[in-house]
């Protein structure tokens, strides 16, 4: 039984193939089209999934879409009626699009399947629709290692739901409680994303990264005016401060009066105000998440918790939730946002619609999130030669030795191996690597390689067996979705003068033995690397440890700001030639910058729209 899950037409479109209950392949459309957060029909991703499974389109038994478009239309229509006449401008802008396209998405999806997968198949009879939050919940529970668990889903909004509690048992999964639009923790966070000058549905993680530079000075104002948080974690927003129901922006003039001015202009200088706003909304988010989790533990009695939805990508909140020890174990879907809805839609189709049994895997059944395209060594060499790359081919041991020594020498290394990751994080398959012990690497990578804001932190990849010696964490974090403090034994005390620094001045203080991955509050977004799921990456870090005594590497996604993570050898080569990455490794092919033709170098700074 082959089920193709599809998420599309909002942001982060993706496809996933589930065969006999196993997640065989999954990928986001952006990786193929090179358009960040591509919302279009995931034609390339769907074709890839079929190729990876060795299937032809006729082998697909069902296609399951991740939400119900008519439910979204109903929400929009009822919202406009409720706020009339205030929302007329937004209504007039969006209704023609809905009436022309989105209301008839069954037809549109069927036509897209005909166009991209073959017109000789009756796709309409094979097409099914899940619900948005059920797809999220299914993406979290069914691949998890739990026989039974509570599932908390938090995002902007699905059809009507913004927050939901589901309970999973074996192959069963049902939603029990919901909070409905317009009351949304995800949209509240996005409102502050917009107000601090970042792009909604893209810059939320920047707000999270900015928060430690500030103080939560606005928490009381937020609680007084914007959100009423109950003891059980449920909440209610005062919509008179927001414009996302009826307008074309997130916040309004009343919001601006409360917080002392208009929204920051994108790309303008960050001030202490934005840092304090970021710290404040982060604190509010953590309070809601922790209260919801406590209520779930108390009322359901469930000992395990699964998380999904865009808010589940808030790894700072996840880390605090883990440290509360409310649950025996927590498992978070690595593609927790809308892309993961494709996984959930396919699994919901298999287990809930078809009532098929569920196999539970130790760890989980996401294969380390390595579910995307891979290339044979022969293909790699052919493709690199075609774009003019000059390379040598090394056996594994020599390759690892060369790369480890290059890292020790302070070089930035582009590392592309095996299957591409599914989800927003690079996990050692499409990564840029560096030495975490360097006090200048964080700044250099941001400014010379990633071309992004200097305040943004980098994550550590650490050998699973060594994680508790280097971080205040002793559990798996394979998907880089948990934040933990650097171990006290590795921290360096600050002087009195350093302790008095504010805002961005904190950036250049060396706080630990691994300063390149230590954020200004001594925290780090940890990825534990396991020999079973990524043996080559594990061997590389082990070699670096042998040379330095440090089992940690800087791991950031292989891309520049605004660019999707690289997918193909050609993508990797272009990024290598457009940045100050000094060494590129693709499979067993090794490319040194000084050996490449200078004619192939390009200015990569303006190649992609800023995120």
Which tags fit this structure?
Nucleotidyltransferase, domain 5; 21 strands; nine-stranded mixed beta sheet; 35% helix; single chain; globular; alpha/beta; 611 residues; DHBP synthase; 18% strand
Q: What does this protein look like?
A:
The protein is of the alpha/beta class and 611 residues long. The chain has three domains: 2-136 and 337-358, ATPase, nucleotide binding domain (Nucleotidyltransferase, domain 5, 2-Layer Sandwich); 185-330, ATPase, nucleotide binding domain (Nucleotidyltransferase, domain 5, 2-Layer Sandwich), CATH 3.30.420; 377-600, Carbamoyltransferase, C-terminal domain (DHBP synthase, Alpha-Beta Complex), CATH 3.90.870. Helix 3 (69-83) packs antiparallel against helix 4, helix 7 crosses helix 14 (341-353) and helix 8 packs antiparallel against helix 12 (272-300). The chain is globular, with a radius of gyration of 24 Å. The two termini are 39 Å apart.
Give the averaged pLDDT, no decimals: 93
Question: Largest sheet, described in full?
Answer: 9 strands, mixed
CATH hierarchy, class of the largest domain: Alpha Beta
Looking at the structure, the CATH topology of the largest domain is: DHBP synthase
Query: For this structure, what is the CATH homologous superfamily of the largest domain?
Result: Carbamoyltransferase, C-terminal domain
Proper CATH architecture of the largest domain: Alpha-Beta Complex
Globular, elongated, flat, extended or rod-shaped: what is the shape? globular
Assign a percent range to the helix content: 25-40%
* Low-pLDDT regions: none
Q: Report the portion of residues in β strands.
A: 15-25%
